[in-house]
Design a protein that fits this description.
By secondary structure, the chain is of the alpha/beta class. The protein is built from 9 helices and 10 strands. The protein has one domain: Alpha-Beta Complex (2-enoyl-CoA Hydratase, Chain A, domain 1).
């Protein structure tokens, strides 16, 4: 009997190619359109993309639009979902190739507890962090902006500081206002602990009247934010990356006992 042959119903032997049968068809390489679709999906789901694909030791995270917390906002709102940012920060902390994190903000604020959760995670990272406010870092974006090791703000950017407020049903009892006051104190303590602004000055800006037409508070422009001690310095992307590289170099020296190879 011929090797690799099978006997048909008519008794004739039919040759078969065992090698071809054993080989599995290979999946075609990813096309350019497929790569573009994957990038677009990453932008839609996480608001981020890995392109350009050059290797970098810096992880860049963007916080834009409204910070979405426990309630899903309407689809027409541009939002940053805090449940997307938390695993990204954990991954950056665990990845040995990532040596620093650059956080870029252009946010109108949003959920207080979600914003504070993001700010606390940034503040407790062991790797160097730099925050950069572009456009605006309003409301609960203020604690996030000051949570890093070094903070920068563009000259034309603004930060709105105002008291917190409640949405939905509000029960008109003293306990409601006590709860608001306690939550506000959490924000004030975090900001004053992670920046050079005093408690008195921050409260003065927060409760100022006559400046905002429909709210209590202050809109602080970039140079004033630096003057008040809220932000460390004026700058942009270039200054942010340079400062982050400096902090990374200092961390390397500290970990190697002052010797860098």
């Amino acid at each position: 009997m011929v090797s690799g042959a099978t006997q048909g119903e008519s008794g004739m032997y039919i040759l078969s190619n065992n090698k071809q049968e054993e080989e599995q068809p290979q999946s075609p390489p990813m096309t350019e359109d497929a790569r573009k679709n994957a990038t677009v999906e990453a932008i839609q789901q996480l608001g981020q993309t890995v392109t350009p694909t050059g290797e970098s030791n810096i992880f860049c995270m963007t916080i834009i639009g409204q910070i979405e917390g426990h309630i899903v906002l309407p689809p027409q709102n541009k939002t940053t979902k805090y449940e997307h940012l938390i695993p990204q920060l954990v991954a950056a902390e665990q990845n040995p190739k990532i040596e620093g994190v650059l956080i870029i903000l252009n946010t109108v604020g949003g959920d207080v507890e979600a914003g504070l959760a993001i700010a606390e995670m940034i503040a407790t990272l062991s790797k160097p962090t730099v925050t950069l406010v572009l456009g605006g870092g309003h409301s609960i974006g203020v604690p996030i902006a000051v949570a890093s090791n070094y903070s920068l703000i563009a000259e034309t950017a603004t930060m709105t500081i105002h008291p917190i407020r409640l949405n939905g049903l509000v029960i008109g009892v003293p306990q409601t206002f006590e709860y608001l006051d306690k939550m506000q104190e959490r924000v004030i303590k975090f900001v004053t602990r992670h920046s050079n602004i005093s408690d008195e000055k921050f409260k003065e800006l927060m409760f100022k009247t006559g400046e905002l037409t429909r709210d209590i508070g202050t809109s602080v422009v970039g140079p004033d934010a630096v003057k008040f001690g809220l932000i460390d310095a004026l700058g942009g992307v270039g200054e942010g990356i340079r400062e982050l590289n400096r902090l990374i170099e200092e961390r390397r020296k500290a970990n190697t006992g002052g010797m860098v190879q």
